[in-house]
Amino acid sequence: MLTHNLGYPRIGADRELKTACERYWSNEIGLQELEETGKKLRKIHWEAQREAGLGLIPCNDFSFYDQTLDLSLTVGAVPPRFSRLSQAPLPELAFAMARGCQKEGVDVVAMEMTKWFDTNYHHLVPEFTRDQRFSLTPDKPLAELKEARGMGLPAKPVLIGPLSYLLLGKEKESGFHRIELLKRLLPVYRELLTELKRGGAEWVQLDEPFLALDLSPEIATAYRDAYAQLAAGGSLPKLLVATYFAGVGDNARLAAGLPVSALHIDLVRAPAQLEEVLPLIPHELSLSLGVVDGRNIWKNDFSRSLRLVQRAVEALGEERVMVAPSCSLLHVPYDCALERDAGMLPAEVIDWISFARQKLDEVVTIASLAVKGGAALEDPRVIANAQSLERRRHSPLIHRPDVKERVKGITPEKLRRSSPFATRRARQQEALALPSFPTTTIGSFPQTAEVRRLRSRLTSGKLSAEEYRAEIEREIERTVRFQEEVGLDVLVHGEYERNDMVQYFGEQLEGCGFTRGGWVQSFGSRCVRPPVIFGDVERRGPMTVSWTVFAQSLTERPVKGMLTGPVTILQWSFVRDDQPRSDTARQLALAIRDEAAELEQGGIRVIQIDEPAFREGVPLKLADRAAYFAWAADCFRLSTSGVDDATQIHTHMCYSEFNDIIDRIAALDADVITIEASRSQMELLEAFKEFSYPNDIGPGVWDIHSPRIPSCEEMFDLLERALECVPKERLWVNPDCGLKTRGWSETRAALANMVFAARALRERYFAPPAR
Questions:
Q1: Which residues are catalytic?
Q2: Does any domain span residue 56?
Q3: Domain that holds residue 712
Q4: Helices 380-393 and 302-316: crossing angle, nearest 10°?
Q5: CB-based contacts of 317: which residues, under 8 Å, 6+ apart?
Q6: Same domain, yes or no: 429 and 322
Q7: What's the chain's average pLDDT?
Q8: Nearest to residue 676, comparing CAs of 696, 659, 699, 642?
Q9: What is the CATH number of the domain that holds 150?
Q10: pTM exceeds 0.70
Q11: Minimum mean pLDDT among 199-208, 521-530, 672-681: which range?
Q12: DSSP-derived 3-state class of residue 691
């Protein structure tokens, strides 16, 4: 029974890739050293997969930034504005496309970035024009295939499939649909697949996650035609089409009918689809079963997985069944062995978890057990696995009856503010006395090396809690004074005490744990350590109040309290899988509600409850969305409704498309929503215009994930575009996101430009009448 993996984490167990990229960007190392780091990491990751005993090992799943960006470079879909960089080395061109470029007379904005389906991983959005042409630059996939084969590995190159690649993109001009470009793209794919076969690839994996979404008849037809064209003429490697994150559902017949050698389905997200798909599998097609969870960290239930694999073996035979994780392991950390002596997770919880390295072993173990038939259930490995799961099920770490009772006591009155927005807005304006086009930031300020050292010294015991607090308060005071000087209207304290917007809260909640080495990639060099929510969640005590109240004591201007919303904490954590996610979200909402109430009691009159993952959490299938929106919106309103009408509630969302859920965003009833909008040049606001979004909006005018410093004129132009969609009375001015990753020199210059642009806008639209 063939075992394989769909993709492996690439940042390095100690985030070596992050370090190398950031050193390269700051000119501390050259391109050769950067590429050597990539080569070393690939070798380590391939060796781990060979050691586990996989039958096929992925290659070309590595990237210095993003796999969608890499494919755009491979097929020649480079936006024209980067033409002056076309002769640069591929990593340099890729980084310019991902981060923008402002040097040596070149000033170009980055490509848009958005979430990879319903994950917290961000990909670069391909840009297409009506006359788009494609051409092959196969250097990267061929080079990595050669590397892997040079190690004697059974290497399987991984590519995003042609339909999913086009559907992930965006038309940069009207009057055509990007799927019309398929006829130009397919010859390039065929050429690439031919080159990979010449390079020794027996199998190639084509990721087609859109096959698990609702497809129009036109797209379904395009799938049939595209794969028929790829199959025509032969001379290609065996193709494995991979679907994941949902069941193929209505697309089952389409997916099973593609002329390829194997189809992969996700039996973690949609185990019931096996019975739907099996009768449709033709005799020449193998079926890959994703039975090990590639999205979460809990130990596999061997008996459950074996039932699925053995059912497929009964129908198809061992030789036509493949075993794999549900999706790429990009979304989970490296190795939970790193946690055993760290003392950060309870030892009992470590016994329940499985990171990428352990998931490889689970895949191979399940395949070896499946061939034993009914005798597999008596295998010591299955018995030990069942005992571990049973210990978890009954652990006192999980269950807190008082928390469950409080959730039961949530009433409809707790799910809404006491007055409508118009009433609240009048009271807030009276209390805050803000000018037109009020300026603010999204929350964090630069986390300098010195700030990170302070946290490290506190953790290691080299700095006392009192000394740490005094140092952080000095950072807060400097930041408040800077904001006053630059002229911002609503200030923040800078979040210097926080390691990450979710991890920070997870560390202060009962029922949550955190890791030493549980890093996963969010985008580029940005890595996060998601909390581990293993039990019922409850707030231990105030989490942010003292820092925010201290900042407010330094200034007469309003200081925002900064909280992370319940849906985002849920989405960006490794969440327990033994109860509905909605139940855990309600527990989180009650914790955030308590924190918001204490902030208000401390004199804080503006509170931001960030929900950047609200869009990310939307189910991929339309039929599943109503239930999600109901509980997700309820949880946000539960967290915000405990404050007075005069307290202004903000929320922030970024790197998402809102067109199809704008009514659901409005249902959150935040007084102010700030969104990422600069990379799209305010295109995202069209949804707010068409829907007539009723509350205040702050579209970002500074792309903080780019090292570029936008000029006053650029920001002013963006704000003028925003005014085509947002009434002038309800427009805020702010960056796209928090400033944690930016340097102070960029921050000072960009915020000064932003305030200047806001003031120029006030003069234009709210100038005093002539005498």
A1: 705
A2: yes
A3: 423-612+626-764
A4: 130
A5: none
A6: no
A7: 95
A8: 699
A9: 3.20.20.210
A10: yes
A11: 672-681
A12: helix
